[in-house]
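Why this split exists: single-chain examples teach little about how molecules sit against one another. For that reason, every record in the complexes split bundles all components of an assembly together and asks for one structure covering all of them. Below is a record exactly as it appears in the raw files.
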Amino acid sequence: MTNYLWLVIAAGALGVLYGLVQTASLMKADTGNDKMREIAAAIQEGASAYLKRQYTTIGMVGVVILIAAWLLIGQYAAIGFLIGAVLSGLAGFAGMLISVRANVRTAQAASQSLSKGLDLAFRSGAITGMFVAGGALLGVAGYYAVLTEVLGLESTGREVIDGLVALGFGASLISIFARLGGGIFTKGADVGGDMVGKVEAGIPEDDPRNAATIADNVGDNVGDCAGMAADLFETYAVTTVATMVLAAIFFRGQPYVDVMMLLPLAICGICIVTSIIGSFFVRLGKSNNIMGALYQGLIVTGVLSVGAVWYVITTLVTGPVVTTGGLQIEPMNLFWSGLVGLAVTAAIVVITEYYTGSNFRPVRSVANASVSGHGTNVIQGLAVSLEATALPAIVIIVGIVVSFQLAGLFGIAIATTTMLGVAGMIVALDAFGPVTDNAGGIAEMAGLPSEVRHSTDALDAVGNTTKAVTKGYAIGSAGLGALVLFAAYTSDLQYFASNPADYPFFANMGVVAFDLTNPYVVVGLLFGGLLPFLFGGMSMMAVGRAAESVVAEVRRQFRENPGIMTFQTKPEYGKAVDILTRAAIREMIVPSLLPVLSPIVLFVAVLFISDKANAFAALGAMLMGVIVTGLFVAISMTSGGGAWDNAKKVIEEGFTDKNGVVHGKGSEAHKAAVTGDTVGDPYKDTSGPAVNPMIKITNIVALLLLAVLASGSIG
Amino acid sequence: MTNYLWLVIAAGALGVLYGLVQTASLMKADTGNDKMREIAAAIQEGASAYLKRQYTTIGMVGVVILIAAWLLIGQYAAIGFLIGAVLSGLAGFAGMLISVRANVRTAQAASQSLSKGLDLAFRSGAITGMFVAGGALLGVAGYYAVLTEVLGLESTGREVIDGLVALGFGASLISIFARLGGGIFTKGADVGGDMVGKVEAGIPEDDPRNAATIADNVGDNVGDCAGMAADLFETYAVTTVATMVLAAIFFRGQPYVDVMMLLPLAICGICIVTSIIGSFFVRLGKSNNIMGALYQGLIVTGVLSVGAVWYVITTLVTGPVVTTGGLQIEPMNLFWSGLVGLAVTAAIVVITEYYTGSNFRPVRSVANASVSGHGTNVIQGLAVSLEATALPAIVIIVGIVVSFQLAGLFGIAIATTTMLGVAGMIVALDAFGPVTDNAGGIAEMAGLPSEVRHSTDALDAVGNTTKAVTKGYAIGSAGLGALVLFAAYTSDLQYFASNPADYPFFANMGVVAFDLTNPYVVVGLLFGGLLPFLFGGMSMMAVGRAAESVVAEVRRQFRENPGIMTFQTKPEYGKAVDILTRAAIREMIVPSLLPVLSPIVLFVAVLFISDKANAFAALGAMLMGVIVTGLFVAISMTSGGGAWDNAKKVIEEGFTDKNGVVHGKGSEAHKAAVTGDTVGDPYKDTSGPAVNPMIKITNIVALLLLAVLASGSIG
């Protein structure tokens, strides 16, 4: 086993190494003219300043939790939390550092050819992707190796389990702050900048006279890049950890328990290799089909992963395994479960492209509705956003059923792990979006020829879809993984309850009925169900307030400095960044703490009203409730937002409606489409994506609550 | 017992009688001048034509189901279905007939004074309210009396239970068609008319030159009145029936089982009396506070109901009762449960007023966001709509916990029944809204002085809130009642499974695990959860298409008949009504059948993949899933829509923003607010309210599926 574990760690290191090597090569690319460099430097400075301040704030929350984890659970949990938090933060920071360097280089490359622009942008995305996947694998496998191999702790013991879960919690906590803070920043800048610039002052998007433009570009990097990277890091780490925990529970006492715990790590490790290989296949063909080029890389990764996962599973699992529940699982069934995970990924990619791509019914219907006005654009966009949830949900349902039939709950866990295995490639597709968005902004501000902007716009439109894909993928894996986390919760609970001598809190509490006929289960479902809605409402209001602060500042600059409008003086970009930084950090705190505190509040409330068994039942049901509504809220927001954004792009390229009339930039239809795009902004880049870490946090807090109660430090 | 049952029927008859007497008095009111009468006649004609065509279409679906019910379950189920369907249809038709007569009389009364306008509008609402409550009670209690007293069937036997459940299904089926068809009609007219009139032609709302105006007014009557009446009829009937079924299951074999089955009917009966009394207390005080006047009536009804429910419960239930599960319930605990129902009603009224009333933070925040543009208006409105779900959900959670602690599942059932008991009064508050909306339209079209319009607008603004209240109330009762329906499902299932000799389909199927650890339960939750989203998306797109057909028609009329714009020729109002009628009826079919067919599809699919036990588990979980997401989707849509509508009204009255600038009709802020209002229209009047009957249908179809399988005609 030991050798394989070190191989996994090597695979994680390979991912990071790939990132470092590619970064070195990326840095050599041409950064264009002085004006471009100047703009890029301003974006870099703003992004670094924001992230530093954001992480300082999160750090304060983190230290409190670190101490609490140490006191309430133990040193290994505290250290695990620290590792997860620091690495998740680093993944975000690295994503930002890469993208603020890639943006200007992409603008320059795009001024040469679309193909070169795509190459550079995708390469920067791949760097972030490999940092995320490699870093997460290094963190989880590395800490596991230290605990079991170096310190010699029992792999299925509480110290190791609690340490790994705490690592997941650290990653989740950072990621919700990063997603939300970054999301509020980027959309506050975007919405506020558009309102005061495009609507009030009548100047184009990304016009250098708008003091919010730099902030808008900073936002792409701290939100869509850093926030996304931290989010995917979290998804990757939590899923791997949850599968390991489930393996420890299901195969406790069996000779192959260590193999089964290693299995998710090994699958992830080999998929890093296939992702790296796939990344070399992203090349623009003669047809200039950007999405096709990206798909090429993704398909290569997928196909190679099928073989690789088969190899890993059949090598490690040499014969049938039996769970503590008595279910016998054949190795091939585990492989088929892994395939289910890859199939779910593929299906979600295709469905998301259908709902957010420029060439399909949904986006075109939104474009068409824009012709009759703002209201109908929004109605159609909302309708699309609601409808877009159905197919992904059915895919997830089918994924659950098939993998469960194959290999029980562990089959679902393996499907989820394999799905996340290719995260490096998926992140690569996503991170390329904000880079091209930024490149477009730089091209505009630096006054590059309009063909450059045309190239970056083409890349950006595809970026809108790939961004939606990643979000659908992350939330889809959460839907599939919900059962895994829930199973970890119930199994932990059962274990504690059956060993009351060691865990006195769980003594004599009777049977915990997770049955739907238990009203406390319904209470938990409803309470969990309300969280994504309340969270969505709070985060959208936060964006509104952040945008207002930007509007006020830009208005002030226009008013106090009339030279800005006539290009005689430059606006104070830094001031807008600074104001937004403070607004975003202030606004991210309360919604981020909602999922951290809610499980504890519900547990204590039901404990007070009823008894321990019902409190645990309500808490468990809450985990399921938050996923049931969260899945739909998140998918509807991210797909709807993507559809609105691309409907606007479709019109900007000249949209011919049913009556043969062509609508372009500046038309009434375009104005309506801009409204939809504005509405979609916080939907798809703030509230929607933050639901994924929110779901995870709720689940992990519940697991940690069990750990705290089991430790005997409370109760 | 018998005497009390006839008393209940008498109370139902009293409600209907009140309606008839008040109608006679209403008809005597002044109908204004010839022009007003002419307009009103056109509205009447359009509304009748639409409803006739709608009910003919529904009738065809109904006949198929009637025959199926007869063949698959039996004659009593078929007759019950027929009664429920016919009465629900009649309730809708009556609501429409009243409101198309009250609208012109209210316009005339409002031209004399606000107080007279309120009096007339509310009186017409109260007529509809009493028809709905009285009719539903007559239907349920009457059919129950015929089955048990006249035909002498056993009250807890399958014939009676299936007959009552089928009655509920008949009511639900009609109501979803009526809600959806009416909702698509009314919002198609509203959205389409506004788009082509206000936006394109630049003429005001309700301008007689717009061919869609009559259709818009027709829509208020067939959607907000007829649809709402059918919906509330359904809610009332289904809740009463579900409580009776639960009583039959819980107290089977006890001497007081008939008393317990009578209890929900008796509570509803006495509450009809208190609602009638309360309706006389709606009088406008010197302060001209319309909401205050309505509250006065509601509070009187509420306070009287407390005493009345106490009297009924303590008279009928003379000592502790014991369920088959062994739970002993004191009569006073049943009374306290009833009080919980009234408290939930009061809380939902207050919360809904907060979120949709013109004087509170949410509506004012939407008005304020309108100042910065269309996009921010919509963002803030969506944020409010999401946030607005949290408090009602918590109220429902607390209601479930408290009534369950008091008297177990039967306590929840009594709470829900009592909540629905005062439906007559709640419907009165609601039905008054569309009447005043119509009155405003007639005033505008007939060229009455602007003060009249001012009065009707003031009434209409309150109507927006009361309409949102009714919807929150209906969906809230569904949330509370979900457990009752689910309990009926599980108890029925348990009963069949424990008597395999009589019900061979249920033999040897093993334990049905409704446990959240069963993946098929999660599958059911997710599948149920997707229905409200998909349904919402489909119905909003339907409104979009219906609106487009209106736009095309009005454009054609303007183009082909230039005299319309110069007031020389009248537009062809009937043509627009006709086109919309066809569109609405075409569009209502598929979404309405979604909840009818989904339970069957899921059951068969899981049966095919797994086994009977898991198929029943998935189906049960689906019922819970549809309520968990449906509750939030419905509340967010209805509250958000109300907030948008009133934000527009606030601006029309002159809104002073944070910087002291006043925005009024025609301002940029007003245009943005109109966009929000347009978006809110299908949200609050089509998709949102139709979720309530959708949830019920899913539940009842599941119950009927059990009945079919038990009958042995299939399987």
